[in-house]
Amino acid sequence: xxxxxxxxxxxxxxxxxxxxxxxxxxxxxxxxxxxxxxxxxxxxxxxxxxxxxxxxxxxxxxxxxxxxxxxxxxxxxxxxxxxxxxxxxxxxxxxxxxxxxxxxxxxxxxxxxxxxxxxxxxxxxxxxxxxxxxxxxxxxxxxxxxxxxxxxxxxxxxxxxxxxxxxxxxxxxxxxxxxxxxxxxxxxxxxxxxxxxxxxxxxxxxxxxxxxxxxxxxxxxxxxxxxxxxxxxxxxxxxxxxxxxxxxxxxxxxxxxxxxxxxxxxxxxxxx
Length: 272
Fold this sequence. Notes:
Layout: H1 2-28, H2 32-40, H3 47-59, H4 67-79, H5 83-95, H6 103-115, H7 119-124, H8 137-145, H9 149-160, H10 165-177, H11 189-198, H12 202-214, H13 218-230, H14 234-246, H15 254-265
Helix pairs in contact: 1-2, 2-3, 3-4, 4-5, 5-6, 8-9, 8-10, 9-10, 10-11, 11-12, 12-13, 13-14, 14-15
């Protein structure tokens, strides 16, 4: 009888494993209804199923957004040493995402994620060791250029607290032009651009020019474009040339327009 049961176990285990993989594949292919139905059957014991269910409740994939359920499933997976679940918990507590912000708890989960091999967690550890590792604007820009906007924002926020107005520009730029899960909704990009522009950031000055232009405030747009153009920003030089060519916000002047177009064509320095 025991031999028979053992044979049955050997028979069913691969089937169950295959079914779980089917659920994970369904999630990754955005078939959330199918994914949820399958993953829920494994929710009591399998860490992969628990991790993906946590993601579904955190991001409201098919189910209603429920941060408490997300935390529950992530915690169950993290107890089984699931690195990505631990990292997800670290981010929830670090950002105060539906819970009270607590960097001590976040740090514990970061450590657990690192131990279990999550590479992102190694990068995020910098945020919890500021006294040992000095974060720079370059660190944030590198993450920004890779499209890792949430981590970039975290770094820019740390730097901005040290009165770095260049970091304010990047915070405003990310929040103005990119849409992503976890994007803060309490940031006003215009205000950050204005502060950074007044402090001399040429990219922020250019953005202020764009903002004023699209409000039909052409005189103000020209003033900001000129500030950025005089600092050698290529895009601002081109726009300023167009403003003089068309007479937007200034008297039409083809000579000045030609000058700025020449500056633009001879300039290889892009913004951002």
